[in-house]
Amino acid sequence: MHFIKASIITIGDELLIGQVIDTNSAYIAQSLNKIGVTVNNRIAVGDDKNAILNALNVTCKQSNIIIITGGLGPTADDITKPLLNEYFGGNLIIHQPTLNHITDIFVNKYKRPLIERNIKQAEVPDVCEVLFNENGTAPGMMFEKEGILYFSLPGVPHEMKGLVDKYVISKIQHTFKTPTIVHRTLLTAGIGESFLAEMIADFEMALPNHIKLAYLPNFGMVRLRLTGTSEDEKSLISNINELFAQLKIKVQEYLVTDKDESMEVVVGNLLKEKKQTVATAESCTGGYIGHLLSKHAGSSQFYTGGIISYDNRIKTEFLDVPTEILLSVGAVSREAVEQMAVAVREKMKTDFGVSVSGIMGPSGQTDEKPLGMVWIGVANKEKVVSKVFYLRFDRSRNIEVTATQAINLLRLLIINKI
User: Fold this and answer.
1) Residues 341 and 390 grouped into a single domain
2) What is the residue-wise DSSP string for 203-253?
3) Cα-flanking dihedrals φ and ψ of residue 16, to 5°?
4) CA dist 7 to 11, 58, 159, 244, 365, Å?
5) Residues 389, 399 contacting (CB under 8 angstroms)
6) Pair 135, 244 in one domain
7) Residue 157, preceding bond cis, omega within 30 degrees?
8) 107 falls in which pLDDT band (50, 70, 90)?
9) Burial 55-69 (b: 16+ CB within 10 A, else e)
């Protein structure tokens, strides 16, 4: 099987010093993978001409496709466009549709004068195919040299995504014959990666060579992804579907969803299907559970709101947690979170209530309550359930894991598994 290979080059000093996290490479790699293109390597370089040229000279010997992001802005450190103009032997010319677009943005929309820097954004090498950027001022560019496709895209993520989705993928598919890649993903909860691997070891050992199984643990959950590659699309899809059905049976006790979706999406869909609602009472997560539940479109159908009860006074005044409980067993306790879950459900007039209280770190622990100790409570009209977790991460990750575990506990209550 002939594989089409790609290299991704991201440009910017801010990437090398960690000031900006490179999400562009991940999006590009995922998009290429969906059409059967293998990513050979990902290279990050600074705003340095020699470093960029070296990256181009290395990757052109390894890949059929080179995708570059960054360095197309209007400032002095944005050197990608003149460098590529020189590299491919072109001359810079004004691309009139882009200039019209820039003029419309600055003059008509923002009522600002058009300065020379803005106009230069419309310049492109006359040896490239322009990829019109409707989301910004820097156009994308495509070059072809010795059978290799080169794409230069803006570093601004939403601009880059727009060009990848509208132009890059279709250009690649039009130029190269790529194999079919099929993914099927499921999500499990309540079992660790090593135990899961032991449970399905015989299944994994029996997989054919063209189908691989990946374990993707995160936030106390484990995703299992089957990936198949073949030039026979129909046969591959049939093969993957059959094996995926077998895998689902193997892990059915711990199965959350047989789709590649997050826990909050699963729970949101459950609530919408049942026409039920939920409210949150958060201490240690500071509203992060509410953020997850409300981040997707349509969440207003099931999420009514929440109370961030970080201070104990808020727990007593707004969530009716008795002072006696806080004095005797403390805020990080079964008694506190159960009352919080019950109260927020009643006050918000929802079907379910979710509550959390814990010690996220890096301080605040006691001998009885170590760092990472978290109580989670969920309640409906019939009952209230709580569970304690002992997490071992830093503060940010503890918050994220707590939120995901709280939403999972809510899921179990919704489907009557607790």
Assistant:
1) yes
2) HHHT--TTEEEEEEEETTEEEEEEEEEES-HHHHHHHHHHHHHHHHHHTGG
3) -75, -30
4) 13, 10, 20, 31, 47
5) no
6) no
7) no
8) confident
9) bbeebeeebbbbbbb
pLDDT in tens, 25-78: 999 999 999 898 999 999 999 999 999 999 999 999 999 999 999 988 887 778
How would you classify residue 198: left for phi > 0, otherwise alpha for psi between -120 and 50, otherwise beta?
Answer: alpha
Structural domain including 26 reads 4-175
User: Mean pLDDT throughout 399-407?
Assistant: 96
| Full DSSP string of 300-312 | GGTEEEEEE--SH
Residue 1 pLDDT > 80 = no
- Residue 379 tokens, joined: 């309640």
C-alpha closest to that of 162 among 7, 28, 6: 28
CB contact at 8 A, 268 and 298: yes
Give the pLDDT of residue 111.
Answer: 87
CATH number for the domain spanning 221: value is: 3.30.70.2860
Q: How many Å apart are CA 127 and CA 144, to the nearest integer?
A: 9
Residues 229 and 277 in one domain: no
Among 126, 70, 127, 131, CA closest to 94 = 126
**pLDDT in the model for residue 188:** 97
HSE on the CB side for 373, CA within 13 Å? 15
Q: How confident is the model at residue 108 (pLDDT cuts 50, 70, 90)?
A: confident
Question: How many domains is the chain partitioned into structurally?
Answer: 3
Residue 13's identity, in one-letter code, is: D
Half-sphere exposure of 274 (CA within 13 A, CB side): 18
* Boundary (domain end) residue, out of 237, 257, 277: 257
165 and 133, same domain (yes or no):
yes
257 DSSP assignment: E
Asked if residue 116 has pLDDT above 70, the reply is: yes
3-state class (DSSP) for residue 30: helix
Based on the fold, state whether residues 187 and 290 are members of the same structural domain.
no
**Does one domain contain both 290 and 246?**
no
CB 370 within 8 A of CB 361: no
Rounded to whole angstroms, the Cα distance separating 402 from 7 reads 37
CA distance 218 to 291: 18
pLDDT tens for residues 332-366? 999 999 999 999 999 999 999 999 999 998 988 88
